[in-house]
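[retry 2/3] Terpene cyclase/mutase family protein: previous attempt timed out, resubmitting with same input.
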Amino acid sequence: MIVRRSAAVLAASAVIGAAFAPAAFAADASPSPSPALPSGLFGSADPTYDGVWRQSLALLAQHTAGVEPAAKAVKWLTGQQCATGAFAPYRADASAKCDAKTMVDTNNTAAAVQALAALGGHDGELGKAVGWLKSVQNKDGGWGYTAGGASDANSTSVVIGALAAAGQHPGDVVKDGKSPYDALVKLSVPCDEDGGGAFAFQPDKKGKLAANADASAAGVVGSLGKGFVTTAGKASGGDTCRDADGLTPQGAAANGASYLAGSLDAKPYLLSAMPGAKDQPDYGNTADAVVALAAAGRTADTKKPLAWLEKESGTWAAKAGPAAYAQLIFAAHATGTDPRHFGGQDLVTQLGRTGPAAAAADHSDAADEKKKDDDKGLGVWWIVGVGLVAGIGIGFLLSGRNKKQQL
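[retry 2/3] Terpene cyclase/mutase family protein: success.
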């Protein structure tokens, strides 16, 4: 998904009144993470607003690239789940029970579902998470960022992706007769209005819909019943905007894809809507748009933005961290591009450096014990070896969106 900016931005906006979440984008590139952070966590920046989000995207991206994530990284994610099934952005003390003050939300929960569903073997966690998501569905069929919040295109779409990943049929998940697809169609800007065909994030106070590129990328993927990880779909229709009367989810997706393609016509990237970032490229939203266009079958329209990302996104991803690398891997996957040869970058290796070593590089306890036995009596060489192993461990913990939300 894709999606979009890290969900952390919306959370941070609501909590601290800012439209930009430092936790999501200001990850440093220091050679080792803060000692206060758990070793299983991806990224070295403050995880308060995006810990579960970036972890979920990182694990899903590794799986998509054929890498088995470290067991402790997966364990960290499952350990963040509350008894209700919901996830908060980050719980520093995961042993403490969640209560009314625990700020759980739909975006982090849905992202965790997509990751755990892909990894397999987590039916218990998935069942509880999906159950919670269904319990907080709005009467219009959609979801807001928090339970009871007004439905928005991004949250509704990420939940659709979670439902589909968990083997559910999103169209069958209804509240008062309304499905999440109904909610998304209602957020499609009418063809005869400014930005016609795009998705709005939410209606304004007067009920008017304003075109939003971030919401459009999310809305396209969600309307097609897909999640963060997708492949090129079958093209349907051209650039003619479909009328709002009788608009289907597929029609809304085609409209949104046409809007995105048009937005990328003059320049191969989307512009940031963040305060103080006028005329600045939005790398994450551009990557999400590539995924959306591919999902809608408009692969020809992905070529220019994808080429731009291959050339220009390296510095951004290094600063933004795990979720950024994941977004690029999802864009590469959707277009059939090798993420290990992405404009001269190996996105998979770079992502791996922001978290614990992948399972293939892990040593079992039995192997470690055997090594200790074999090395007994080596005197100073054993001490030197321990030092080297410790150094390697630190190196593996090198650290860098959803996010997120561009309003």
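[retry 2/3] Terpene cyclase/mutase family protein: Confidence is low (pLDDT under 50) at residues 1-34, 361-407.
[retry 2/3] clearing retry counter.
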